[in-house]
Protein backbone atom coordinates (compact mmCIF):
# COMPACT_ATOMS: atom_id res chain seq x y z
CA UNK A 1 0.00 0.00 0.00
CA UNK A 2 1.13 3.55 -0.64
CA UNK A 3 2.71 5.72 1.97
CA UNK A 4 1.00 9.01 2.66
CA UNK A 5 2.54 12.13 4.14
CA UNK A 6 1.02 13.19 7.46
CA UNK A 7 1.68 16.20 9.66
CA UNK A 8 5.17 16.22 11.12
CA UNK A 9 3.74 16.57 14.64
CA UNK A 10 4.01 12.77 14.86
CA UNK A 11 4.67 11.08 18.16
CA UNK A 12 7.04 8.31 19.12
CA UNK A 13 4.84 5.82 20.83
CA UNK A 14 4.14 4.05 22.99
CA UNK A 15 5.59 6.42 25.54
CA UNK A 16 6.50 5.50 29.08
CA UNK A 17 4.44 7.23 31.74
CA UNK A 18 6.43 8.87 34.53
CA UNK A 19 5.89 11.31 37.36
CA UNK A 20 8.70 13.83 37.62
CA UNK A 21 9.13 15.27 41.10
CA UNK A 22 10.69 18.50 42.33
CA UNK A 23 10.44 20.86 45.25
CA UNK A 24 8.57 24.11 44.60
CA UNK A 25 8.92 26.61 47.43
CA UNK A 26 9.92 23.70 49.64
CA UNK A 27 6.90 21.56 48.76
CA UNK A 28 6.93 18.41 46.62
CA UNK A 29 5.34 18.84 43.21
CA UNK A 30 4.76 16.19 40.56
CA UNK A 31 4.20 16.37 36.83
CA UNK A 32 3.26 13.63 34.35
CA UNK A 33 6.01 13.25 31.71
CA UNK A 34 6.08 11.01 28.62
CA UNK A 35 8.89 12.66 26.66
CA UNK A 36 11.67 10.89 28.49
CA UNK A 37 14.41 8.40 27.58
CA UNK A 38 17.61 6.90 28.82
CA UNK A 39 20.48 8.54 26.88
CA UNK A 40 23.83 7.35 28.26
CA UNK A 41 25.04 4.02 29.60
CA UNK A 42 27.86 4.95 31.93
CA UNK A 43 27.17 7.01 33.93
CA UNK A 44 23.41 6.37 33.67
CA UNK A 45 21.84 9.52 32.20
CA UNK A 46 18.28 10.27 31.28
CA UNK A 47 16.86 13.13 29.22
CA UNK A 48 13.37 14.58 29.32
CA UNK A 49 11.65 17.34 27.38
CA UNK A 50 9.47 19.67 29.48
CA UNK A 51 7.37 22.51 28.14
CA UNK A 52 8.73 25.84 29.36
CA UNK A 53 5.24 26.87 30.49
CA UNK A 54 5.16 24.33 33.32
CA UNK A 55 6.21 25.13 36.86
CA UNK A 56 8.52 22.10 37.17
CA UNK A 57 11.33 23.42 34.88
CA UNK A 58 12.22 26.45 37.01
CA UNK A 59 12.15 24.25 40.12
CA UNK A 60 14.56 21.79 38.50
CA UNK A 61 16.91 24.62 37.61
CA UNK A 62 16.69 26.03 41.12
CA UNK A 63 17.21 22.67 42.86
CA UNK A 64 19.58 21.12 40.29
CA UNK A 65 17.77 17.86 41.04
CA UNK A 66 14.61 15.96 40.18
CA UNK A 67 13.06 12.54 40.57
CA UNK A 68 11.55 10.19 37.98
CA UNK A 69 8.92 7.85 39.36
CA UNK A 70 7.34 5.04 37.34
CA UNK A 71 3.75 4.49 38.47
CA UNK A 72 1.84 1.23 38.24
CA UNK A 73 -1.54 1.18 36.52
CA UNK A 74 -3.39 1.49 39.84
CA UNK A 75 -1.94 5.02 40.05
CA UNK A 76 -3.31 5.95 36.61
CA UNK A 77 -5.95 8.41 37.85
CA UNK A 78 -3.52 10.21 40.16
CA UNK A 79 -0.90 10.29 37.37
CA UNK A 80 -3.35 11.76 34.89
CA UNK A 81 -4.41 14.31 37.50
CA UNK A 82 -0.77 15.45 37.79
CA UNK A 83 -0.82 16.05 34.03
CA UNK A 84 -4.09 17.97 34.16
CA UNK A 85 -3.45 20.47 36.95
CA UNK A 86 -0.52 22.84 37.38
CA UNK A 87 1.49 23.24 40.56
CA UNK A 88 0.95 26.96 39.98
CA UNK A 89 -2.72 26.56 40.85
CA UNK A 90 -2.98 23.43 42.96
CA UNK A 91 -0.78 22.17 45.79
CA UNK A 92 -0.03 18.58 44.77
CA UNK A 93 2.22 17.92 47.78
CA UNK A 94 -0.43 15.89 49.63
CA UNK A 95 -1.16 13.60 46.71
CA UNK A 96 1.53 11.04 47.47
CA UNK A 97 3.56 9.90 50.45
CA UNK A 98 7.15 10.86 49.63
CA UNK A 99 10.60 9.79 50.74
CA UNK A 100 14.10 10.99 49.96
CA UNK A 101 17.30 9.26 48.95
CA UNK A 102 20.67 10.90 48.62
CA UNK A 103 19.39 14.15 47.08
CA UNK A 104 17.32 16.28 49.39
CA UNK A 105 15.48 18.13 46.62
CA UNK A 106 14.26 15.09 44.67
CA UNK A 107 11.04 13.85 46.31
CA UNK A 108 10.38 10.17 45.55
CA UNK A 109 6.89 8.66 45.50
CA UNK A 110 6.50 5.74 47.90
CA UNK A 111 3.55 4.29 45.98
CA UNK A 112 5.55 3.98 42.72
CA UNK A 113 7.28 0.64 42.07
CA UNK A 114 10.39 2.34 40.68
CA UNK A 115 11.85 5.66 41.79
CA UNK A 116 14.96 7.34 40.40
CA UNK A 117 16.72 10.33 41.89
CA UNK A 118 18.63 12.48 39.43
CA UNK A 119 21.18 15.24 39.60
CA UNK A 120 20.79 17.83 36.82
CA UNK A 121 23.91 17.84 34.67
CA UNK A 122 22.89 19.79 31.57
CA UNK A 123 20.00 21.89 30.27
CA UNK A 124 19.46 22.32 26.55
CA UNK A 125 17.09 25.13 25.64
CA UNK A 126 14.86 24.26 22.70
CA UNK A 127 12.17 26.48 21.15
CA UNK A 128 9.18 25.36 23.25
CA UNK A 129 10.83 22.92 25.67
CA UNK A 130 13.79 22.49 27.98
CA UNK A 131 15.69 19.24 27.55
CA UNK A 132 17.00 18.31 30.99
CA UNK A 133 19.79 15.75 31.28
CA UNK A 134 20.10 14.12 34.67
CA UNK A 135 22.46 11.58 36.15
CA UNK A 136 20.69 8.83 38.07
CA UNK A 137 22.34 8.71 41.48
CA UNK A 138 19.88 6.38 43.18
CA UNK A 139 17.17 3.89 42.17
CA UNK A 140 14.64 2.39 44.55
CA UNK A 141 12.11 -0.38 44.40
CA UNK A 142 10.66 -3.00 46.76
CA UNK A 143 11.28 -6.73 47.16
CA UNK A 144 7.72 -7.46 46.09
CA UNK A 145 8.40 -6.10 42.58
CA UNK A 146 11.44 -8.32 41.98
CA UNK A 147 11.79 -11.84 40.64
CA UNK A 148 15.22 -13.41 41.13
CA UNK A 149 16.52 -9.99 42.12
CA UNK A 150 15.39 -8.30 38.91
CA UNK A 151 12.50 -5.86 38.35
CA UNK A 152 9.54 -7.87 37.08
CA UNK A 153 7.34 -6.01 34.60
CA UNK A 154 4.37 -8.22 35.52
CA UNK A 155 4.67 -7.22 39.17
CA UNK A 156 5.39 -3.54 38.53
CA UNK A 157 2.49 -3.17 36.12
CA UNK A 158 3.64 0.00 34.36
CA UNK A 159 1.42 1.52 31.69
CA UNK A 160 2.09 3.42 28.49
CA UNK A 161 0.68 6.44 26.70
CA UNK A 162 -0.04 6.93 23.02
CA UNK A 163 -0.57 10.28 21.36
CA UNK A 164 -2.27 11.92 19.44
CA UNK A 165 -5.10 9.57 20.41
CA UNK A 166 -4.37 10.22 24.12
CA UNK A 167 -4.86 6.72 25.48
CA UNK A 168 -3.28 4.79 28.33
CA UNK A 169 -2.60 1.10 27.74
CA UNK A 170 -1.41 -1.81 29.84
CA UNK A 171 1.62 -3.85 28.82
CA UNK A 172 0.40 -6.89 26.92
CA UNK A 173 1.99 -10.21 26.03
CA UNK A 174 5.64 -11.20 26.01
CA UNK A 175 6.75 -10.88 22.36
CA UNK A 176 10.21 -12.46 22.54
CA UNK A 177 13.68 -12.09 24.00
CA UNK A 178 15.86 -9.23 22.81
CA UNK A 179 19.33 -9.97 21.41
CA UNK A 180 18.03 -13.44 20.69
CA UNK A 181 14.99 -13.48 18.37
CA UNK A 182 16.99 -11.89 15.58
CA UNK A 183 19.52 -14.73 15.58
CA UNK A 184 17.06 -16.64 13.40
CA UNK A 185 17.64 -14.09 10.66
CA UNK A 186 21.41 -14.30 10.85
CA UNK A 187 21.57 -17.03 8.19
CA UNK A 188 19.41 -15.00 5.81
CA UNK A 189 21.51 -11.92 6.40
CA UNK A 190 24.67 -13.87 5.65
CA UNK A 191 23.13 -15.20 2.45
CA UNK A 192 22.21 -11.71 1.38
CA UNK A 193 25.76 -10.72 2.11
CA UNK A 194 27.08 -13.48 -0.18
CA UNK A 195 24.76 -12.46 -2.99
CA UNK B 1 6.88 -2.35 52.42
CA UNK B 2 10.38 -0.94 52.58
CA UNK B 3 12.11 0.61 49.62
CA UNK B 4 15.44 -0.90 48.61
CA UNK B 5 18.25 0.71 46.63
CA UNK B 6 18.79 -1.29 43.45
CA UNK B 7 21.68 0.62 41.89
CA UNK B 8 21.60 3.60 39.60
CA UNK B 9 21.98 1.65 36.37
CA UNK B 10 18.76 -0.28 36.75
CA UNK B 11 16.42 2.14 35.00
CA UNK B 12 13.45 0.21 33.84
CA UNK B 13 10.24 1.15 32.15
CA UNK B 14 8.58 0.08 28.98
CA UNK B 15 10.43 1.82 26.17
CA UNK B 16 9.28 2.35 22.58
CA UNK B 17 11.07 0.36 19.90
CA UNK B 18 12.31 2.15 16.80
CA UNK B 19 14.61 1.52 13.87
CA UNK B 20 16.92 4.45 13.26
CA UNK B 21 18.09 4.66 9.68
CA UNK B 22 21.05 6.44 8.11
CA UNK B 23 23.11 6.24 4.97
CA UNK B 24 26.55 4.95 5.83
CA UNK B 25 29.01 5.13 2.95
CA UNK B 26 26.06 5.40 0.59
CA UNK B 27 24.17 2.35 1.87
CA UNK B 28 21.07 2.34 4.09
CA UNK B 29 21.81 1.00 7.57
CA UNK B 30 19.35 0.44 10.39
CA UNK B 31 19.79 0.14 14.14
CA UNK B 32 17.26 -0.89 16.80
CA UNK B 33 16.92 2.05 19.21
CA UNK B 34 14.83 2.29 22.38
CA UNK B 35 16.53 5.37 23.76
CA UNK B 36 14.40 7.73 21.73
CA UNK B 37 11.87 10.40 22.64
CA UNK B 38 10.06 13.43 21.35
CA UNK B 39 11.61 16.49 23.07
CA UNK B 40 10.12 19.64 21.54
CA UNK B 41 6.59 20.54 20.43
CA UNK B 42 7.09 23.23 17.83
CA UNK B 43 9.01 22.55 15.70
CA UNK B 44 8.73 18.79 16.30
CA UNK B 45 12.13 17.60 17.52
CA UNK B 46 13.13 14.06 18.51
CA UNK B 47 16.19 12.93 20.44
CA UNK B 48 17.93 9.59 19.84
CA UNK B 49 20.86 8.31 21.88
CA UNK B 50 23.32 6.07 20.03
CA UNK B 51 26.37 4.41 21.49
CA UNK B 52 29.45 6.06 19.98
CA UNK B 53 30.65 2.70 18.65
CA UNK B 54 27.56 2.32 16.46
CA UNK B 55 27.96 2.27 12.70
CA UNK B 56 24.72 4.26 12.33
CA UNK B 57 26.23 7.14 14.35
CA UNK B 58 28.84 7.58 11.61
CA UNK B 59 26.12 7.97 8.98
CA UNK B 60 24.11 10.46 11.04
CA UNK B 61 27.16 12.66 11.44
CA UNK B 62 28.18 12.35 7.79
CA UNK B 63 24.81 13.12 6.27
CA UNK B 64 23.30 15.31 9.03
CA UNK B 65 20.06 13.38 8.54
CA UNK B 66 18.45 10.23 9.92
CA UNK B 67 15.13 8.44 10.00
CA UNK B 68 13.10 7.05 12.89
CA UNK B 69 10.83 4.18 11.86
CA UNK B 70 8.25 2.65 14.19
CA UNK B 71 7.76 -1.06 13.49
CA UNK B 72 4.67 -3.14 14.17
CA UNK B 73 5.07 -6.31 16.25
CA UNK B 74 5.18 -8.42 13.04
CA UNK B 75 8.70 -6.99 12.52
CA UNK B 76 10.02 -8.01 15.95
CA UNK B 77 12.58 -10.48 14.52
CA UNK B 78 13.91 -7.97 12.00
CA UNK B 79 14.17 -5.31 14.71
CA UNK B 80 16.09 -7.63 17.00
CA UNK B 81 18.39 -8.60 14.14
CA UNK B 82 19.17 -4.91 13.56
CA UNK B 83 20.21 -4.69 17.21
CA UNK B 84 22.32 -7.86 17.07
CA UNK B 85 24.47 -7.29 14.02
CA UNK B 86 26.55 -4.25 13.20
CA UNK B 87 26.57 -2.55 9.83
CA UNK B 88 30.36 -2.71 10.17
CA UNK B 89 30.19 -6.46 9.61
CA UNK B 90 26.91 -7.12 7.80
CA UNK B 91 25.27 -5.16 5.01
CA UNK B 92 21.74 -4.55 6.31
CA UNK B 93 20.69 -2.57 3.24
CA UNK B 94 18.78 -5.49 1.73
CA UNK B 95 16.73 -6.20 4.86
CA UNK B 96 13.98 -3.70 4.12
CA UNK B 97 12.49 -2.02 1.10
CA UNK B 98 13.30 1.66 1.58
CA UNK B 99 11.90 4.91 0.26
CA UNK B 100 12.92 8.53 0.62
CA UNK B 101 10.98 11.66 1.47
CA UNK B 102 12.15 15.24 1.31
CA UNK B 103 15.61 14.45 2.61
CA UNK B 104 17.45 12.27 0.17
CA UNK B 105 19.76 10.75 2.77
CA UNK B 106 17.30 9.51 5.42
CA UNK B 107 16.24 6.00 4.34
CA UNK B 108 12.65 5.20 5.41
CA UNK B 109 11.38 1.64 5.88
CA UNK B 110 8.34 0.83 3.78
CA UNK B 111 7.25 -2.02 6.09
CA UNK B 112 7.03 0.29 9.14
CA UNK B 113 3.63 1.86 9.89
CA UNK B 114 5.17 5.21 10.84
CA UNK B 115 8.31 6.73 9.34
CA UNK B 116 9.85 10.05 10.34
CA UNK B 117 12.59 11.81 8.41
CA UNK B 118 14.78 14.07 10.54
CA UNK B 119 17.33 16.79 9.92
CA UNK B 120 20.12 16.78 12.52
CA UNK B 121 20.05 20.07 14.39
CA UNK B 122 22.30 19.39 17.37
CA UNK B 123 24.64 16.70 18.66
CA UNK B 124 25.28 16.42 22.40
CA UNK B 125 28.39 14.38 23.15
CA UNK B 126 27.91 12.32 26.30
CA UNK B 127 30.44 9.95 27.89
CA UNK B 128 29.38 6.73 26.09
CA UNK B 129 26.67 8.01 23.71
CA UNK B 130 25.85 10.69 21.21
CA UNK B 131 22.50 12.37 21.73
CA UNK B 132 21.29 13.41 18.30
CA UNK B 133 18.50 16.00 18.14
CA UNK B 134 16.61 15.98 14.89
CA UNK B 135 13.80 18.10 13.53
CA UNK B 136 11.04 15.98 12.02
CA UNK B 137 10.64 17.33 8.47
CA UNK B 138 8.41 14.56 7.13
CA UNK B 139 6.15 11.86 8.57
CA UNK B 140 4.66 8.99 6.59
CA UNK B 141 2.07 6.31 7.19
CA UNK B 142 -0.58 4.41 5.19
CA UNK B 143 -4.35 4.70 4.99
CA UNK B 144 -4.72 1.22 6.46
CA UNK B 145 -3.23 2.38 9.79
CA UNK B 146 -5.66 5.27 10.21
CA UNK B 147 -9.13 5.47 11.72
CA UNK B 148 -10.97 8.72 11.04
CA UNK B 149 -7.72 10.16 9.70
CA UNK B 150 -5.73 9.44 12.89
CA UNK B 151 -3.09 6.78 13.56
CA UNK B 152 -4.85 3.84 15.21
CA UNK B 153 -2.69 1.93 17.70
CA UNK B 154 -4.72 -1.23 17.33
CA UNK B 155 -3.94 -1.24 13.61
CA UNK B 156 -0.31 -0.16 13.98
CA UNK B 157 0.41 -2.68 16.78
CA UNK B 158 3.59 -1.04 18.13
CA UNK B 159 5.58 -2.93 20.76
CA UNK B 160 7.73 -2.25 23.78
CA UNK B 161 11.17 -3.08 25.07
CA UNK B 162 12.03 -3.76 28.67
CA UNK B 163 15.71 -3.74 29.62
CA UNK B 164 15.19 -5.44 32.99
CA UNK B 165 14.22 -8.73 31.34
CA UNK B 166 15.62 -8.01 27.85
CA UNK B 167 12.22 -8.67 26.39
CA UNK B 168 9.81 -7.25 23.88
CA UNK B 169 6.20 -6.85 24.95
CA UNK B 170 3.05 -6.10 23.02
CA UNK B 171 0.74 -3.28 24.02
CA UNK B 172 -2.24 -4.75 25.87
CA UNK B 173 -5.70 -3.47 26.67
CA UNK B 174 -6.62 0.18 26.52
CA UNK B 175 -7.07 1.48 30.07
CA UNK B 176 -8.54 4.99 29.77
CA UNK B 177 -8.29 8.35 28.06
CA UNK B 178 -5.32 10.49 29.04
CA UNK B 179 -5.95 14.10 30.09
CA UNK B 180 -9.38 12.94 31.11
CA UNK B 181 -9.46 10.09 33.65
CA UNK B 182 -7.62 12.28 36.18
CA UNK B 183 -10.58 14.66 36.31
CA UNK B 184 -12.15 12.15 38.68
CA UNK B 185 -9.45 13.05 41.18
CA UNK B 186 -10.00 16.77 40.87
CA UNK B 187 -11.92 18.20 43.78
CA UNK B 188 -12.48 14.80 45.30
CA UNK B 189 -8.90 14.10 46.30
CA UNK B 190 -8.25 16.44 49.19
What does this structure look like?
The complex is a heterodimer of chains A (195) and B (190). In chain A, strand 10 (114-125) and strand 11 (129-141) form a beta hairpin. Chain A is globular and about 60 Å long. Chain A is α+β, with helices and mostly antiparallel strands. Chain A starts with a strand and ends with a helix. Chain A has four helices and 15 strands. In chain A, 50% of the residues are buried. The longest helix of chain A has 9 residues, at 76-84. In chain A, strands 4-3-7-10-11-6-5 form a seven-stranded antiparallel sheet. In chain A, strands 2-14-15 form a three-stranded antiparallel sheet, with no helix packed on it. In chain A, strands 8-9 form a two-stranded antiparallel ribbon. Helices cover 15% and strands 44% of the residues of chain A. With 190 residues, chain B is mainly beta. Chain B contains three helices and 15 strands. A seven-stranded antiparallel sheet of chain B has the order 4-3-7-10-11-6-5. A three-stranded antiparallel sheet of chain B has the order 2-14-15, with no helix packed on it. In chain B, strands 8-9 form a two-stranded antiparallel ribbon. In chain B, strand 5 and strand 6 form a beta hairpin. In chain B, 53% of the residues are buried. Strand 1 (3-6) of chain A pairs antiparallel with strand 11 (129-142) of chain B, so a sheet runs across the interface.
**Average pLDDT taken over every residue of chain B:** 92
Radius of gyration of chain B: 18 Å
Please write the string of helix (H) and strand (E) elements of chain A: EEEEEEHEHEEEEEEHEEH
Give the terminus-to-terminus CA distance of chain B. 24 Å
Strand-pairing-aware structural class of chain A: alpha+beta
How many DSSP helices of chain B? 3
Number of strands of chain A: 15
Overall SS class of chain B:
mainly beta
Protein chains sharing the most extensive interface: A-B, 110 and 110 residues
Oligomer: heterodimer
Silhouette of chain B: globular
The parts of chain A where pLDDT drops under 50 for at least 5 residues are 189-195
Q: Helix and strand string of chain B, N-terminal first?
A: EEEEEEHEHEEEEEEHEE
Rg result of chain A: 19 Å
Strand content of chain A: 35-45%
Question: Can you tell me the overall shape of chain A?
Answer: globular
Major β-sheet profile of chain A? 7 strands, antiparallel
Instruction: Summarize model confidence as the mean pLDDT of chain A.
Output: 91
User: For the report, how would you describe the main beta sheet of chain B?
Assistant: 7 strands, antiparallel
Beta-strand percent range of chain B: 35-45%
Amino acid sequence: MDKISIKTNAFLYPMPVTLVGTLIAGRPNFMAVGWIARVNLDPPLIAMGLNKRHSTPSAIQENQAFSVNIPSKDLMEATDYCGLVSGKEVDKSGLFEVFYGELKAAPLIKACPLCLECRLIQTITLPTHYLFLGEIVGAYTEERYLTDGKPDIRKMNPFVLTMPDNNYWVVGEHAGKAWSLGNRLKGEGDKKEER
Amino acid sequence: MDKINIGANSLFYPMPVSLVGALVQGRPNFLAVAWVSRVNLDPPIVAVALNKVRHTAVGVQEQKTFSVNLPGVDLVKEVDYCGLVSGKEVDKSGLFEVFYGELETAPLIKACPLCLECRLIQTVTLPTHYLFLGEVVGAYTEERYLTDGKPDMEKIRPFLFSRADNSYWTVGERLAKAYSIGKQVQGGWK
